[in-house]
Design brief:
The chain has helices spanning 7-10, 45-52, 55-58, 69-80, 89-97, 100-105, 108-120, 126-134, 140-156, 161-172, 180-192, 199-207, 213-216, 219-225, 240-275. By secondary structure, the chain is an all-alpha fold.
Length: 324
């Protein structure tokens, strides 16, 4: 009798090993492991594509190791198909389809990691990434990741830099008709590529106020970055980042004030406790609130007339009893 199919037994070795690797931590977050050491090669491409795009894995239990298998799968694809491998073409489309997870599932690993895997493959990824970026039917942040991919390709492969810059500039020329985030991160990719040749269209986008200046700075920051200016001529205007920093600074100041007042209150209590007479012992099992006791005024007992009944309860007049 055959066993029921589960995620664990639906992948064959060597790809199945990726199911147990778990989250890339520490140095491995940036410096990817060598997947060829696990026996993974270009022959594993179909299984790696299936794993990278497996919904059951991508949307699996957050604490399971298997949920990280797609990350290892696209990293492995980037490595085994690097530098325009003949099989890279069949991989680009499925991997680009994962970018929509950024908008649909807020998948930060797709945002930060997948563009690097695509960039390893080289020129074969340029045209598909540019077309994905240009298609407004895709999600806002998915398109941002496509722009990031072009920037990563240009940095990874200097011979492709000019083509990547040209594709990014072509997209930025539509700045007046597209989302601010798309403009901002297309410009951010040009910033990473130090694309001084893109400065005319970058300047127009800034002048029209269609760039988020909290990401890479304002127009003067770009002019300095590209060597067109040595220092600023004007102070920076407030932006989202500076406003947020201001709010955080305000909260920090309020917290310090609260802690200072608390310290002063504790000092006052300590002084009062030092000068107060010891509190009398509590009777009848009363709770001990001595930390908050304060000195009480003396209240004299009521006066008893000489002809009043003696308060001792003898029945005699006070003058013939306790007051005698």
């Amino acid at each position: 009798m055959s066993l029921p199919t589960t995620i664990e037994n639906s992948y064959a070795p060597p790809v199945s090993q990726l199911l147990s690797l778990g989250e890339p931590r520490g140095k491995e977050r940036q410096d990817w492991r060598d997947y060829s050491a696990l026996g993974i090669s270009a022959e594993s491409v179909p299984e790696l594509i299936r794993m990278a795009t497996d919904d059951a894995l991508n949307d699996g239990l957050p604490k399971s190791k298997a949920v990280w298998a797609p990350v290892h799968a696209w990293r492995a694809l980037g490595q085994v198909l690097a530098d325009n491998h003949p099989r890279a073409g069949e991989t680009i489309g499925p991997l680009l389809s994962l970018l929509q997870r950024i908008d649909d599932a807020q998948d930060d690993w797709v945002t930060s990691d997948l563009p690097k895997a695509l960039a390893l493959m080289g020129s074969v990824a340029v045209d598909p990434a540019a077309k994905y970026l240009a298609d407004a039917a895709h999600g806002e942040w998915a398109r941002v990741a496509a722009a990031t991919t072009l920037g990563e390709i240009g940095q990874k492969h200097p011979e492709l830099r000019a083509e990547c810059v040209a594709r990014l500039v072509k997209q930025l020329e539509k700045f007046s008709d597209q989302l601010e985030a798309v403009n901002t991160f297309v410009i951010s990719a040009l910033w990473d590529l130090r694309a001084v040749e893109a400065m005319p269209v970058i300047e127009r986008a800034f002048v029209d106020g269609l760039v988020d200046e909290s990401v890479n700075g304002d127009l003067e920051d770009f002019q300095i970055r590209f060597g067109l200016k040595s220092k600023r001529d004007h102070p920076r205007k407030p932006n989202r980042l500076s406003e947020m920093s201001g709010k955080l600074a305000g909260l920090h100041e309020e917290t310090e004030d609260y802690e200072r007042e608390n310290a002063e209150l504790r000092e006052t209590i300590a002084v009062l406790k030092a000068i107060m007479p010891p509190a009398p012992p509590k009777k009848n099992g009363a709770s001990d609130d001595s930390e908050f006791d304060l000195p009480q005024p003396y209240i004299a007992p009521p006066k008893v007339g000489r002809n009043d009944p003696c308060p001792c309860g003898s029945g005699k007049k006070s003058k013939k009893c306790c007051s005698a």
